[in-house]
Amino acid sequence: MINKYPLWKYLLIITVVVMGFIYALPNLYPDDPAVQLTGQRGSVQLTDTELNKAAKALDRAGISYFGQSVENNSGLIRFKSDADQLKAKTVIQQALGDNYVVALNLAPTTPQWLVDIGAGPMKLGLDLRGGVHFLMEVDMKEAIAQRNEVYISEIKTLLRTERLRYRRITRDDGVISIRFKDEELREKATFLLRNEFADFTQVEREADNSFYLDLQLSEEAVRNIEDYAVKQNLTTLRNRVNELGVSEPIVQRQGRNRIVIELPGVQDTAAAKRVLGATANLEFRLEARSDSNTLDTEEYPFRNNPNRLATLERDIIITGNSVSNAQSAFDENGVPQVNIDLDSQGGKLMNRATRNNIRRRMAVLFVEHKIKTTVVEHAGEKVEKRTPYVEKHIISLATIQSALGNSFRITGLDAPGEASELALLLRAGSLAAPIYFVEERTIGPSLGKENIELGVTSVQIGMALVVIFMLAFYKVFGIIANLALTANLVMLAALMSMMSATLTLPGIAGIVLTLGMAVDANVLIFSRIKEELNNGMSPQMAIHAGFERAFVTIFDANLTTLLVAVILFAVGTGPVKGFAVTLSLGILTSMFTAIMVTRALVNVVYGGRQLKKLSI
């Protein structure tokens, strides 16, 4: 019998449409503004005690909140408005101190039964939802200082190799001073260093019965180091964002020494802030001998026991910059560790240092650049003052049993979370210079609420016009087409939610285009049915012929458009990709609804009946 589907096909269509409605439902539940709290390091635990302390601070400040909770070492406090959220962040940070990260977030309100089946709202781009905005500043002074430390180590090695004895090497405000006992040694060193370190300008002077050679980086060399520091930090931050799995982030340079990071709709902004802002690095140094010159040594505490100290050589074997891969794991006793792989140069330096120092102890020094935030009065207003400082702690001090190569492990970490975080930072790449948060805020839609409302309104107007057109021209068939069109929009939203696709304002344009293409398929089918009726064909045969003969035309038209959408997605970026995603998914859903759903509804209304005419 024509125009009748078998039962299994009806059930399949109903199942697909119902599942579409279910997985599109989370988009009806907007997120709450929230503040998220986590420890500054993975080993710092956050409990109800800290959350209650934050809540009491909010009560004293007269800021209303609701829905506080602690889960997976992360606290969340919800607010009714963005204004309360922004005020609360400063109050909570002052109450908890610098051991905790306080970050702005958006807390989902999706019902638990939808979460349990894997349903969630679609991600919205920066132009629709906004997100978190970080403005970070690269410490150029420290970048130069770190580079000078590397130069000092290389200069020492070179002078020792050439047997040019020096009394002392110091660094003061960008100037490296080498002290010699006589002029002849200084002259030889001047000639040697002029050839090996062309980036320095040299100045000879005498003082305190000694002969000094002062080295200072040229302006061009300073600019190159600063430019490299920003570019390297950009690359590292992009890698860290990729590790976080944020869709369509913005990481770009701003001015001479600043970097802007915008993360649309991330679910864990506290973790993002901790990972992005972490300037943790490693230094591998030998423990100093008992007869070492005190000027060539430094004393550091252990991380897990600050009262225990060890004296290390100033010379650094390698840093975390030489790490090519890092993975967290557990040793044979279940203690967290990080397995390290070095690049070829790092492996050579490590092998050379350990080969010649078997039975000596080598330390792994954990270096963190931090910011201490205090609130001070300025012009009658309270403002935050940020003071950078450096913390260095020993996390491991072990005896070298044999020469090490490109692979080894680091132990002495407090918790698995800390091991995972350290591995992530090393794997993503070390920062070329410390970087600090200058500004953090939630950002509204970049095109403004008015334009967003216009975008949504355009979808509503477009659909309304399509509905009116179909009802006016095709009557009962128009009602069927409108029902299929509604199912199309719902299934498109469900697919984007299930695939975690990002909806942008250009994506809304893709949805509007999808409406036109979806109804265009129905117009082709219905026009064909009308044509067959005018040619004298019976209503049932006209319906059958209309769907069968219009299919090839619809398929060809949508296939070519789908190929264009795929190409746009492959070569485009940002907004172009957003348009391509909604267009391509819309083509697939419109093909299904215009052919399968519309045909099923027509079959239910007209199939198996004796018809004299059609309402079309």
TrEMBL record:
<feature type="domain" description="Protein export membrane protein SecD/SecF C-terminal">
    <location>
        <begin position="438"/>
        <end position="603"/>
    </location>
</feature>
<keyword id="KW-0813">Transport</keyword>
<dbReference type="GO" id="GO:0006605">
    <property type="term" value="P:protein targeting"/>
</dbReference>
<dbReference type="Pfam" id="PF13721">
    <property type="entry name" value="SecD-TM1"/>
</dbReference>
<feature type="transmembrane region" description="Helical">
    <location>
        <begin position="507"/>
        <end position="529"/>
    </location>
</feature>
<dbReference type="InterPro" id="IPR055344">
    <property type="entry name" value="SecD_SecF_C_bact"/>
</dbReference>
<dbReference type="InterPro" id="IPR022646">
    <property type="entry name" value="SecD/SecF_CS"/>
</dbReference>
<keyword id="KW-0812">Transmembrane</keyword>
<feature type="transmembrane region" description="Helical">
    <location>
        <begin position="454"/>
        <end position="473"/>
    </location>
</feature>
<keyword id="KW-1003">Cell membrane</keyword>
<dbReference type="InterPro" id="IPR022813">
    <property type="entry name" value="SecD/SecF_arch_bac"/>
</dbReference>
<comment type="subunit">
    <text>Forms a complex with SecF. Part of the essential Sec protein translocation apparatus which comprises SecA, SecYEG and auxiliary proteins SecDF-YajC and YidC.</text>
</comment>
<dbReference type="InterPro" id="IPR005791">
    <property type="entry name" value="SecD"/>
</dbReference>
<feature type="domain" description="SecD export protein N-terminal TM">
    <location>
        <begin position="2"/>
        <end position="104"/>
    </location>
</feature>
<dbReference type="GO" id="GO:0065002">
    <property type="term" value="P:intracellular protein transmembrane transport"/>
</dbReference>
<feature type="transmembrane region" description="Helical">
    <location>
        <begin position="583"/>
        <end position="606"/>
    </location>
</feature>
<protein>
    <recommendedName>
        <fullName>Protein translocase subunit SecD</fullName>
    </recommendedName>
</protein>
<feature type="transmembrane region" description="Helical">
    <location>
        <begin position="480"/>
        <end position="501"/>
    </location>
</feature>
<comment type="similarity">
    <text>Belongs to the SecD/SecF family. SecD subfamily.</text>
</comment>
<dbReference type="GO" id="GO:0043952">
    <property type="term" value="P:protein transport by the Sec complex"/>
</dbReference>
<dbReference type="InterPro" id="IPR001036">
    <property type="entry name" value="Acrflvin-R"/>
</dbReference>
<feature type="domain" description="SecDF P1 head subdomain">
    <location>
        <begin position="300"/>
        <end position="433"/>
    </location>
</feature>
<feature type="transmembrane region" description="Helical">
    <location>
        <begin position="7"/>
        <end position="25"/>
    </location>
</feature>
<keyword id="KW-1133">Transmembrane helix</keyword>
<dbReference type="InterPro" id="IPR027398">
    <property type="entry name" value="SecD-TM"/>
</dbReference>
<dbReference type="InterPro" id="IPR048634">
    <property type="entry name" value="SecD_SecF_C"/>
</dbReference>
<dbReference type="GO" id="GO:0015450">
    <property type="term" value="F:protein-transporting ATPase activity"/>
</dbReference>
<dbReference type="Pfam" id="PF22599">
    <property type="entry name" value="SecDF_P1_head"/>
</dbReference>
<dbReference type="GO" id="GO:0005886">
    <property type="term" value="C:plasma membrane"/>
</dbReference>
<keyword id="KW-0653">Protein transport</keyword>
<feature type="domain" description="Protein translocase subunit SecDF P1">
    <location>
        <begin position="230"/>
        <end position="287"/>
    </location>
</feature>
<keyword id="KW-0472">Membrane</keyword>
<feature type="transmembrane region" description="Helical">
    <location>
        <begin position="550"/>
        <end position="571"/>
    </location>
</feature>
<comment type="function">
    <text>Part of the Sec protein translocase complex. Interacts with the SecYEG preprotein conducting channel. SecDF uses the proton motive force (PMF) to complete protein translocation after the ATP-dependent function of SecA.</text>
</comment>
<dbReference type="Pfam" id="PF21760">
    <property type="entry name" value="SecD_1st"/>
</dbReference>
<keyword id="KW-0811">Translocation</keyword>
<dbReference type="InterPro" id="IPR048631">
    <property type="entry name" value="SecD_1st"/>
</dbReference>
<dbReference type="Pfam" id="PF02355">
    <property type="entry name" value="SecD_SecF_C"/>
</dbReference>
<dbReference type="Pfam" id="PF07549">
    <property type="entry name" value="Sec_GG"/>
</dbReference>
<dbReference type="InterPro" id="IPR054384">
    <property type="entry name" value="SecDF_P1_head"/>
</dbReference>
